[in-house]
Amino acid sequence: MSGANELRSRVRAHGKRVTPQRQLVLDAIRAAGGHVTTNEIFTHVSAAASSVNRTTVYRNLDFLCEMRLVVAAQIGGKMYYEIAGEEPHHHLVCRHCDSVGEISHRTVKALFDKIEREQSFVVDMDHLALFGLCAECRHTVSKPKLRTRRKRGG
Amino acid sequence: MSGANELRSRVRAHGKRVTPQRQLVLDAIRAAGGHVTTNEIFTHVSAAASSVNRTTVYRNLDFLCEMRLVVAAQIGGKMYYEIAGEEPHHHLVCRHCDSVGEISHRTVKALFDKIEREQSFVVDMDHLALFGLCAECRHTVSKPKLRTRRKRGG
DNA sequence: TAGGCAGTTGCAAATAGTTGCAATAATGCC
DNA sequence: GGCATTATTGCAACTATTTGCAACTGCCTA
């Protein structure tokens, strides 16, 4: 299914409208081929159609996420977007070196299933960003030592 | 351990400073007794000391989170803060009715441990907000039906 | 094809949050 | 208590995102 048809069928199925602006936003994300920031998307859309308003880009990013055509994640204080894949995937973000690793949905789904069984709550998150320390940094970054007296000028 | 002493010992242990502004921010969150928004915190702090700058509040919210005295979560587009408990806990947020339930750390920790074993990545999130549909809404909210012809004025 | 309905947009204004810098002040040492 | 160091603050300016509203326009039906 081509990009344009995918947008149409998904959006129409929700009783919403297909607009040029929405197509442009989706195309910008697809063209980026991975994680892309709000600004990068706006720049790309503006290059194609300068009259598209920034507000419209923001609104349509939210919209495309609701339609599950796009997934978002906040990493390092910035919002990133990428095209939603056939299969959800999640990220491991290192707080120290900012490296971003992937983790399969299968791993996470076990938790979601457990929550559903125990609390009848259906978690529907397709794109989780889990923060911590990566294999490298966990050995480099230590916990704060209790403070000792410090030599002046040390 | 009283609030003031807790701030001092934690902050001094990291080689950082104890300031009146930091105490006021922590006290505002404690006084709220649950989830409280940035604005509510700022309002409370301002009532106690009108010269405290908004920027300072933002900075100290971040700081208190780093010190693990406070936990943050973005729920429904807003940032909420609460005092960090002895034991981490996490939330289940319903996308439909906005209800917020709790989930124990034990449940989530199984996933974190698995990630550590399989990928040597130590997840350190003490306050996760997982989104989905609650027991009530999962039966109420249906998936979009394929659109059928609609009667005008229906 | 034309018309009606309501979803969507552009725009200005507002809100939320961050940055850089000089001044202030907490802490440790003597 | 005084001094030096440097962490932190207030402030102005900046960036990021959202809100409200009138105008526009996508889609459906006759």
Task: Give the gist of this structure.
2 copies of one chain form a homodimer. Chain A has 154 residues and is α+β, with helices and mostly antiparallel strands.
Structure description:
The first copy, chain A, has 6 helices and 7 strands. With 154 residues, chain A is of the alpha+beta class. Chain A has 2 domains: 1-86, Arc Repressor Mutant, subunit A; 87-142, Ferric-uptake regulator, C-terminal dimerisarion domain (Dna Ligase, domain 1), CATH 3.30.1490. In chain A, β2 (70-75) and β3 form a beta hairpin. The model of chain A is unreliable at 145-154 (pLDDT under 50). The A-B interface holds A 12-15, 92, 94-95, 101, 103, 107-108, 110-112, 114-115, 118-125, 130-135, 138, 144, 146-147 and B 12-15, 92, 94-95, 101, 103, 107-108, 110-112, 114-115, 118-125, 130-135, 138, 144, 146-147. Chain A binds a DNA duplex (30 and 30 nucleotides) through residues 12, 15-19, 21-22, 38-39, 51-56, 58-60, 77, 79, 149-153.
Radius of gyration of chain A: 20 Å
How many DSSP-defined strands of chain A? 7
Could you say what the CATH architecture of the largest domain in chain A is? Orthogonal Bundle
> Which band does the percent of strand residues of chain A land in?
15-25%
Largest beta-sheet characterization of chain A: 3 strands, antiparallel
CATH class identity of the largest domain in chain A: Mainly Alpha
Please describe the structure with a list of short key phrases separated by commas or semicolons:
Dna Ligase, domain 1; 154 residues; homodimer; three-stranded mixed β-sheet; alpha+beta; 7 strands; 2 domains; Arc Repressor Mutant, subunit A; flat
